Structures are given as structure tokens and as C-alpha cells.
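Q: C-alpha cells for this one, please.
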Amino acid sequence: MLYQLALRNIWRNRRRTLLTLSAMIISSALLILALGIFSGMLHDMLASATEQYYGHMVISANGYQDDRDMFRHFSAEKSTGTVLEQDEILGYSQRLRSFGLLSHQQNSSPSEILGVLPLQERTVTSLQNSLIDGNYLTDEDPNGAVLGSGLARRLNVVPGDQLVFVTQAADGSIGNDLLLVRGVFSTGDIGHDNALVLVPLAWLQQVLVLPGQVHEIAVRTDQPLNAAEVAQQYRAHLPETLEIFDWGAMLPEMREVVASYDVSRMIIVSILYIATGLGILNTFFMAVMERTRELGVLMALGMRPGQIRAMILLETTIMGSLGLLCGAVAGIALSLYMALVGVDLSGTLTPITYAGGTILPRLHAVIEPGNILIPSVCLLFVSLLAGFLPANRAARMQPVVAIREE
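A: Here is the predicted structure, written as C-alpha cells:
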């Protein structure tokens, strides 16, 4: 009986009910979409920091990450063995790093030269997807170079041009050789676009007189947000001369951004649903006040205060559940559209580098369970909380007073 009475009371004033439901649906749908876009920005920042340069973890000689000392090198095959042959490792890349001077005709610029095995590097980073001109390196390329767009402009080079690289070699001599530009990439990260150059590992080992040596091994895992735990597990299996860092240790500011995400999400949910809850509270107070005489008659006929309270709370539960369902469907649909299509803002905005990552000039959503469950559960909770006060007021009314009230 309470269920039938609750349904009748909900739809006795259709306009007010529809307005309240619309507020619930719109608020939850837009909140799900906003959280999805927020997650998309966070994923873009993390991917730009880890999948364009660092990787999710880095193995290097003790102290190398502190000062990038050229002489802190090791043999990858002898040191890591089968440590990296695990299911959670999606890929790893051996690297040798050097800093020197690149020149083309009358132009020159200091640069970071990263020697890689192109096929391995593809499994860790995604620079091959950021090419704007030319082609990526191949394992058969003896002396190719892929460089950032800012560096290419400074040197005034295009694919096919020749570069001269000069640096200090490990034996004390001056290392120098020629490079051929194969491609140009643009990541939106000013630091990488203005200085980074990828070259074949064997070529750089020869220039630096470090045959068979590397400075680090970049690793990609299937659990980027849990990279710290994975790194801790692998640390015990590495030689004492090596150390392993997760991306959070190398990018502490990015780690703080990720750690604050859940707090920021709850703040956004709270602010929006406080406003929505006030609207729901006002609606049910009005509904109770206009039914005061009716509620008095029901109590005079024998309905107990607890049943009155339960009936009104049932009304709020039904409306909250209906708003939750429709809002979740609409929010998922909007998020799915933004995930598949998105909005390109590159015509009006430029990439923003923050905390080691890059916020791209685009809006796209990432659909995560938490971005749907949190708004949905909070909406139901707010509905029940907003319905409790008018339900409690109605349950405490005296039947005689309620019947006489105009």
C-alpha cells in the first residue's frame, strides 16, 4: 500500500515532479561527463609524461638519475637477465644518453641525444605517433635521427638533411659523426620538442666509445598507476649496482596531481549535489505542506508516524532511483561520445605543460567505474537526506492539528 500511495503522490503534481527529475538527471549526467573529461585530462598528462619519454619505470646504475653521469653505465644483458620477462611488463627499451652540440650549416643547438633500439622503443614510448614529418627510425638504420619540431626549426632542417653531432666520448676524445634526419615529432612538451633527438643505439655507442653499454632501461607495465608497487617487487631481483624508479619518483609533481584526483573529484561532486539537494529538499517540503490535511486524515485513520515517514522516504527513493538511472544513461552516452569523438580546441588553445606532463588542447572523456558510481550513489544519498527532513516533520504532526490546517 505504501508503494502505491508513494507513486500516486509523486505524480499528483506532474510539473513539479518533472522539474525535480530534470534537475536530478541533468546534474548527474553533466557530473558524469565532467568527471570523465577530468579523467581524460589526467590520463593525457600521465601518458605524455610516461609514454613519450620516461616510461612507467626506469632501471639505471646507482646514482645515474641524480646527475646523468656518462660513466654510470652497465651492460643490460648481463645485469637484468630474465627480470624483465614477466607478464605485467608490456615492453622495455635499452637507452644510452649523451648531451652535445648539433649543427646544420650555420645553425647549431645543444641537444639531448637518446640512443635507442627503435623496435624496443616503440613498446615503451609513443613518439612514433607524434610524427609531423618524415618517418620513424628502423632497426636497420645506421645513422638516422628523429628530432623535435622546435629543434628542427632552430636548425632549419627537414627529413633528408644532414646533421653534425659533437660531444665528449668516454675515452676522453671528442666524439663526432654525421646524422641524417629521418623524421620530426611534436609532442606539445616544449622541453622535448626543443632538445630531444632519437638515434640508433649502436651509432651512439660507437660515438661515445661505450660498446655494449647503456645508461638506463625504460619499462612499460600494464599497471601504470601501481608502478611504485611493481618497482618495489622488482627491486629485490636486481643487482646491488642497479636501482629502479617508478614514474612517481622521477615526476613527484605528477604523483601529487594523481594523488589529489580523488579529493578533487569528491569536492566537485559535493558542490554540485549540495545545490541539487537544496532543490530536492524544497520540492519535498512543498509536497508535504500541501498534503498536510491529507496526512492528518491518514494518521487519524490509523497510519502510524513511522509509516508516514517511510512513505515520504519511499517517494524520495523512487525519484532518486529514476533520476539516477536516467542520469547515468545520459552521462554514459555523453561520455562515450566524448571518448570516441571529443572536441578539438587546437585552433584556439595551445598545449600546457604542467608537473612534467602536457595538457593537450582537446576535450575527451575516459569512462571509469568510479566516475559513474560516485555521482549515482551520491545522488541517491542526497535524495534520501533531502527527503528525511520533510518526512520527519510529517511524522511528528498531530492528526487534529494537521486536519484543521488550511
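A few notes: The longest helix spans residues 14-54. The chain has a mean pLDDT of 84.
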